[in-house]
């Protein structure tokens, strides 16, 4: 068997799944060891390369996580919360690093993921890009420096097929602002305004979501004071940045002690 770590991609037929498969195939640090899709998908039983319109790779798409994860060093997962919970169990059982880019988890689902992290390595982030994770750190620092007289708004934009809002990245940024102020985001988040809402609550952290076209991802954190504003911004123009970050996370997680990690750990921020 090759000494290059093998990585499995879940939800491989999706936009992010195919991007991951392409980036892994182009890498000299990892190799594609498995490809997973849900039961009944028409890619099941096909070579992943041929299914994506290219040359055959020898990797056959399966709907069996245990089969796909067997012998793999890592699993990269940008799917849906319920699927990710099942993959977490299978990855822990296989001893594979579980890199989670899935967003939209409920508090109960996050608790369930946390319990699995006691048995395996998880690296989870609402966004895998270096730039976004630097933005998270900057947001925390600015929030530490400014009091609640500065209103905080997180504005995000994504393509018209994104199913969750606010985005996982927007929530990461909101959490960073809340941490900087020493409060729980759940207590100060304002995730929707419509109609006669009244004046803004002092100390609230607001969220706005834009959906349209093929926007890869844009995030602004606005600190609005009297007579001035500070705007921190990240714009993604290529989905490959998320795939490259996920591969970096997979390599970082190999050999780590079981636990829940994030991209700030991976990047040493």
UniProtKB/TrEMBL annotation:
Record SUPFAM superfamilies: Glyceraldehyde-3-phosphate dehydrogenase-like, C-terminal domain, NAD(P)-binding Rossmann-fold domains
Residues annotated as binding NADP(+): 46
Catalytically driven reaction(s): (S)-2,3,4,5-tetrahydrodipicolinate + NADP(+) + H2O = (2S,4S)-4-hydroxy-2,3,4,5-tetrahydrodipicolinate + NADPH + H(+); (S)-2,3,4,5-tetrahydrodipicolinate + NAD(+) + H2O = (2S,4S)-4-hydroxy-2,3,4,5-tetrahydrodipicolinate + NADH + H(+)
Limits of the Dihydrodipicolinate reductase N-terminal domain: 7-128
Known pathway: Amino-acid biosynthesis; L-lysine biosynthesis via DAP pathway; (S)-tetrahydrodipicolinate from L-aspartate: step 4/4
InterPro entries per the UniProt record, alphabetical: DapB_C (IPR022663), DapB_N (IPR000846), DapB_N_CS (IPR022664), DHDPR_bac (IPR023940), NAD(P)-bd_dom_sf (IPR036291)
Residues binding NAD(+), per UniProt: 11-16, 37, 101-103, 125-128
Keywords carried by this UniProt record: Amino-acid biosynthesis, Cytoplasm, Diaminopimelate biosynthesis, Lysine biosynthesis, NAD, NADP, Oxidoreductase
Record-listed E.C. numbers: 1.17.1.8
TM region positions: none
Record domain Dihydrodipicolinate reductase C-terminal: where: 131-267
Location in or out of the cell: Cytoplasm
Any one GO CC term of the record: cytoplasm
Pfam families: DapB_C, DapB_N
Residues the entry annotates as binding (S)-2,3,4,5-tetrahydrodipicolinate: 159, 168-169
Single GO term (MF): 4-hydroxy-tetrahydrodipicolinate reductase
Main location: cytoplasm
Top enzyme category: oxidoreductase
Residues at the catalytic site: 158, 162
GO biological process terms on file: diaminopimelate biosynthetic process; lysine biosynthetic process via diaminopimelate
Stated family: Belongs to the DapB family.
Quaternary organization: Homotetramer.
Its job: Catalyzes the conversion of 4-hydroxy-tetrahydrodipicolinate (HTPA) to tetrahydrodipicolinate.
Protein name: 4-hydroxy-tetrahydrodipicolinate reductase
């Amino acid at each position: 068997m090759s000494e290059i770590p093998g990585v499995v991609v879940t939800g491989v037929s999706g936009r992010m799944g195919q991007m991951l498969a392409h980036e892994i195939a182009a890498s000299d640090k990892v190799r594609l060891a498995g490809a997973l899709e849900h039961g009944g998908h028409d890619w099941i039983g096909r070579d992943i390369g041929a299914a994506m319109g290219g040359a055959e790779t020898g990797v056959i798409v399966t709907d069996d996580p245990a089969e796909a994860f067997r012998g793999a060093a890592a699993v990269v997962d940008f799917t849906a919360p319920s699927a990710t919970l099942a993959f977490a169990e299978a990855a822990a059982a296989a001893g594979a690093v579980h890199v989670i880019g899935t967003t939209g988890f409920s508090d109960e689902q996050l608790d369930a993921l946390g319990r699995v992290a006691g048995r395996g390595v998880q690296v989870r982030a609402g966004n895998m890009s270096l730039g976004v994770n630097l933005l998270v750190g900057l947001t925390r620092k600015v929030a530490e420096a400014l009091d609640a007289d500065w209103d905080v708004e997180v504005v995000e934009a994504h393509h018209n097929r994104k199913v969750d809002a606010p985005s996982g990245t927007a929530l990461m940024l909101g959490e960073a602002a809340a941490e900087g102020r020493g409060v729980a985001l759940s207590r100060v988040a304002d995730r929707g305004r419509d109609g006669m809402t009244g004046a803004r609550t002092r100390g609230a952290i607001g969220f706005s979501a834009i959906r349209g076209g093929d926007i890869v991802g844009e995030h602004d954190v606005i600190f609005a004071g009297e007579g001035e504003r500070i705007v921190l911004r990240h714009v993604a123009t290529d989905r490959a940045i998320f795939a490259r970050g996920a591969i970096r996370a997979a390599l970082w997680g190999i050999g780590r002690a079981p636990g829940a990690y994030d991209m700030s750990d991976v990047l040493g921020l």
